Amino acid sequence: MPSKTDYILILTEGPNELRLINVLLEKDLLWFRNEDLVYHQAFHERQLSEATIERIRQLPADAKVRIYRIGDKLSDTFRLPKRQEDRQKLILPVIDVHTTPELEILMIIREGRYEEYLKVKSKMKPSVFYKTVHRGYNKRSDYVEEYFSSLENDDLTSLLREYRKLRGSLSAGAGLTLFDLLSEAYKK
């Protein structure tokens, strides 16, 4: 847990990951709270923007910031700020949280279609497969937020547990999954 002068910075690859993180925060399912976040929010950006670096500069002088990047394609190298003073506030390494292959895989698992998807996964991305099952689906953030918000806490945490079981925890050193961000009470 962060100390009073430690903060967490959540950077999401896309707006859908941001919406899912916000749902998990609103449902109080994560090991950290909004109050622990830089400016009490997660940010949709793959790299530190100048605006976010400026936010970090505004934190107390002794503050330290742990960065979590959340997305399905985290292959790019995280770029540290150029100024040494800015880098000194960061707790390294930056931690990658994978939603590989895409968030839609969670919906596929939830709806009991994972085995069906495995038969076509070499030809079809999860989002395309999911759209064949739900014709009205498009990658709208509103859809993602409504979908995951509608789930009971136990159902949502069970889904993240099942995803981790089916997908594995990825290779050592490759990062975490969303399950790893859950509070200990929901990991059981």
Alpha-beta classification: alpha/beta
Helix count, DSSP H or I runs of 4 or more residues: 8
Largest sheet: 5 strands, parallel
How many extended strands? 5
Identify low-pLDDT runs: 169-173
For the termini, the CA-CA separation is 19 Å
If you compute it from the alpha carbons, what radius of gyration comes out, rounded to the nearest whole angstrom?
Answer: 17 Å
User: Order of SSEs, N→C?
Assistant: EHEHEHEHHHHHE
The strand order across the widest sheet is 2-1-3-4-5
In short:
By secondary structure, the chain is an alpha/beta fold.
Please describe what this structure looks like:
The protein is α/β, with parallel strands linked by helices and 188 residues long. The protein has eight helices and five strands; from the N terminus they run E-H-E-H-E-H-E-H-H-H-H-H-E. A five-stranded parallel sheet has the order 2-1-3-4-5. It is globular and about 50 Å long. About 3% of the residues have low confidence.
